[in-house]
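Narrative of activities, Objective 1.

The group set out to show that a structural description can be obtained from nothing but a protein's sequence at a throughput compatible with the screening campaign. Below is one input-output pair from the validation batch, recorded exactly as produced.
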Amino acid sequence: MSTNALPKTVRALLQAIPTSTAITLVQRPMPIPNFDKGEHLVRVHAAAPCAGELLWPRFGDIPGKEEIITCDDVSGVVVSAPESSAFQVGSKVYARTNYNRPGCARDYAIVTTTELAPCPPNLSWAEAAAVPLSAETAWQALFEHAGVGGFNSPAWKGKRVLVTAASGGVGTWIVQIANLIGAEVIGTCGPDNVDHVRALGAKEVLDYRAVDLAKWGQDAANKVDLVIDCIGGKSLEDAWSCLRDNAVIMSICEPPKGKRPAVVASGVKDLFWIMEPSGANLTEITKLIEAGKCRPVVDSVWPLEQFRSAYQRLDSGHARGKVVFDLLMNTGKL
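Output recorded for this entry:
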């Protein structure tokens, strides 16, 4: 598309007041990419919010963030690009963008070279937008923070990995990838999602309403080598009981140390971390998707105008996989 044909303004979901979770659909000026910084202009086809993202701004100013436009997961088509980029005009791409910039719940968004990956041709736009944050978080948890080894490391064979909220956006990817590399996966979820999590590759699935995780973990036969917590709170506290000596417990929600009980296994390493957008990670994940070895899980797809209902679904805690906005109302294949 010629830049002369671009509209002057775009629809955008704006969180105008950082201390309020209220968002509105507004018109904003067309974003202008800075090619010297590796920025691309992408026509957004789909964008996905993250649970809790409307609460993040209240924790303090975000350096360099001009305004809070929601949704940092995106799929779409490159409209303009730096000459040196591998992602030229017409490229079908997807990405997790840096939270320090305005997000992608708008008709056109800015994405950098280091964030981009080619969109898997076997996914719809909505399915593609459901991948980046969740899959990159799972990839980094397993291969950059767990300390076991990379994707092809034989050390993963037989490792017992406990995933809380295994039916959620991140949890579904941890289950799939951990199972793929030979780990023995145990997932927690609600009763309606037990069969779903098992189908993704979990060897054992614990219905959190029927199973007391702390008591379950006291049995020596149930001890695990790695906990990846996707809930925080009581679930994270109970997960400490499931660790064997020299295990690792990590959380994407809050520091595990704050939920540590008085008595725990010896030599345990605890870790809280926040994922970093990585086109390189996403490219590796794309290979798995194209090979049919992993897949995104989409809970529901919404037009941008129904953002209130979409966020209600997201914040309900009952979404199976990702909630996605379809900005073109097109759920067909790429």
